[in-house]
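[09:14] KT: can someone run the structure on this one? pasting the chain below
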Amino acid sequence: MKTLITIAALSAFAGSTATADDMAKKAPEAKKAPEPKKDEPKKEAPKMVMPKPAQELTDMAKGMVGNWTCTGKFSMDGTAWTEFKGTNKMTLDLEKFWVKGDAAMTAGPMKMKMTEFVTYDAGQKKWHRLSVDSMGGSETGWSADGKSWEGESRMMGMTHKVKSKVEMGPKAIKVTSEGSMDGKKWMPTFEMACKK
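[09:31] RB: done, structure tokens below
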């Protein structure tokens, strides 16, 4: 009996070995990567082309850059208004991809600072704006034409929607804004006029 088991095991092993040998003979040879020719020039990686600021931003910056003196008023409920006055220094910043505004405003005993950035995305054909202030508030906005803006404002744990209109001349800027908590009912919240 032991002899039969041994012969069966040897036959099975011989059969599997023969099968493995046959498969190895039939398997295709692994291809080697071709070696580069000695006379062939080495390929260089494509050079990275640095993007340029959009012409739309460059054109707008001509009118915006400078020192502005501003007056205006703001409202938290659309009825009671607080007047303010201030300054805004506008410059081209971050490799001329953004117009940066550094504003300082005074409303009675209250003082506030704000920094904003405006740019134009030529791929999206859209203006973008973001701002932060010294009271913990922030705002993001976008516009198709640089005149009619929409976005969101955040302050003191609240977020509300914002719509703004900007009228810009060579020596004057006028901004009016509306706010809404639900995007349906809108109320006036901000008016400002600035002169160079």
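[09:33] KT: thanks! Strands lie at 66-75, 81-93, 98-107, 110-121, 126-133, 138-143, 148-155, 158-168, 172-180, 187-195.
[09:34] RB: yep, looked fine to me
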